[in-house]
UniProtKB/TrEMBL annotation:
It comes from Rhodanobacter panaciterrae. It catalyses: (sulfur carrier)-H + L-cysteine = (sulfur carrier)-SH + L-alanine. Its cofactor is pyridoxal 5'-phosphate. It holds the Pfam family Aminotran_5. This is Cysteine desulfurase.
Amino acid sequence: PTVFDVQRIRADFPLLARSVHGKPLVYLDNANTSQKPASVIEAVNTHYREHNANVSRAVHQLGEEATAVYEGSRDKLARFINATSRNELILTSGTTQAINLVAYSYALPRLQPGDAILTTVMEHHANIVPWQLVAARSGATVKAAPIDERGELIVEKYLEMLTPEVKLACVTHVSNVLGTVNPVREIARECKKRGIALLVDGSQAMPHRPVDVQALGCDFYAITGHKMLGPTGTGALWAKREHLEAMPPFFGGGEMIREVRFSGTTFAAPPHKFEAGTPNIAGFVGLAAAIDYYESVGFEAIHAWEQNLLAYATDRLREIPGLRIFGEAKEKEPVISFLIEGAQATDMATLLDLQGIAVRSGHHCAHPLMQFYGVPATLRASLAFYNTREEIDAFIVALLKVRKLLM
Ligand code: PMP
């Protein structure tokens, strides 16, 4: 195996070279959105310079090229997550759209008063609010499985809550706040035994680990492209074919029909049935380049580097008096939420920014999780494989400075 040359990797990410407030940028907000390698930026740029046209509408050369690259991205993503067929992948604007599609197209038609959707306390609002909206329309309820103090899902409770009135189970693969990796395979196995479909929010897993939807055994897997080196406004819903065949379309318009008549319209087969209107063609060209980038580095190397950084950053943070880390699961991706006693998260993030350190402060779109811990907000440092130990050191130095200022 080759040595992980982080400096060579960093050189592929133009933005990492910039400074902020006169200080070298230390970008530790990767769970929010990742930076993009030059190959992704170039792919988008080249698409607009040389191939731009709409998809599936024109027989001219450019139209064919645009269709080929767009559909090629679907193929690439399908292979990347080991889907059994490219037709199981609906390209969306991100996880939010993917989950809403399942909410309105899968869940809503089958929800009766008294039914329930199961989610968890650690979810992003994108895996809570769509369920509340369809529950309100149908008289169903949303139940949330609990977590423990370490930030691990209490799996026995989750399984206990998979009662017959549950029509869909949901769980995040990786928590965007705690970094916790959930035992998706085990949950999927139990859901299957009970005949309940399982939706997994893969937003925070895809940037860090190889995902194999067949091995996971879930029914739906939601993906967002901008956290995995791709452009904003890209993502996907992977779903088992049987579900896609049965689901009615959610958005109507061009591209998703077979024949339109005022006496009745027929729809295209999946995945096109769910892709009304002109998609983010250039974005998906970029996402395909992002997948190429991951494959060129390899998740084995990425995982080893990130886990090493996570352990180092966690140890260094633990040296700081009064610092509390939220989320100490046995299996974590490199996300660390924390607070320092007596200091407001937003004040700290603002002062860290002046030192060139980009971290996120706030509720991270996870109000129920903040309520569980009894805090309004946390600071979150989230790492990527292009981060370095030196950056962690700079972060710790800045944090100590900020702590002094605020104490
Ligand atoms: N789920 C999780 C776990 C996330 O971290 C995010 C993004 N913060 C989302 C869903 C929503 O993703 P997007 O805004 O790209 O649709």
